[in-house]
Amino acid sequence: MLAALATTILFAISTVCGYRTARQIGGLEANFWRITLATIFLTLWAWTFGSGFAGAPEWFMLSGLFGIGLGDSAYFQALPRLGSRRTVLLCQCLTAPIAALIEWCWLGNKLNLPEILSIAVILAGVALALAPGDHLKISARDWKIGLTAAVFAALGGALGVVVIRKGYAVILAAGLSVDAGTTGYQRVLGGILVPTLFLLVLKWRSAQAHGPAFAETTLQVSREKWGRLWPWLLANALAGQTLGVTCMQWALATTNAAVVTAVIATTPLVLLPLTRIVEGEKIGLRSFAGALVAVSGVIGLTIFH
Question: Rounded CA gap, 99 and 91, in Å?
Answer without folding.
Answer: 12
